[in-house]
């Protein structure tokens, strides 16, 4: 295989790894370490720049000393820890079993097509989680039912909006408003023992925990730019949640 073609294959492989990790909620340092681990086994030295929406890669072939650079836009950001852990395990297998690029690409395709949890199961478990938070804060079973219902409807609305590619922050505002409007009706009608607890906990599934954690770890690791971007992104999500709640408070005049 020609060196230039081999460089293209290796760079595409490594950039795909970086893009998938960034889009699945991995920290910047983890992305760099994983790419460097795979590249080292394939016979390349790397310099990597990871931004919020792009992965830039500079490769140096250890044998020919030739340098090659490329970049790739990252996938839409979300949370897929199954993919993150799968790629991490794969990177160690690359080192231990001395994989080539074809094996790495095959494993990446397998991980991308791996089955995720069914939507209805995710819907039920997320709704149960918010209901459990309501109980944890002192809510009665009827308050848990209110929180469960509000979360269930709001999560389904979120699924539809994201499927139709709505702006993420606008989507968060609408979903927050939907959950609070349903639970707020119980507060307005004084239905339940502590309906205000259902109102407060029905939006907890929207809290940007992953961006906040990644922001902190990036800042600690010295990736200041990504840390600030992720922190601002988390603050915008929190603002969108608050905006949705504010709209409900205005309607019910609480």
UniProtKB/TrEMBL annotation:
Family: Belongs to the ThrE exporter (TC 2.A.79) family.
Coiled-coil blocks: none
Name the UniProt record assigns to this protein: Uncharacterized membrane protein YjjP (DUF1212 family)
Localization of this protein: Cell membrane
Threonine/serine exporter-like N-terminal domain mapped to chain residues: 13-251
TM stretches of this protein: 119-138, 144-161, 168-191, 197-220, 232-252
Keyword Membrane included in the entry's annotation: yes
Record's keyword annotation contains ATP-binding: no
Entry keyword set: Cell membrane, Membrane, Transmembrane, Transmembrane helix
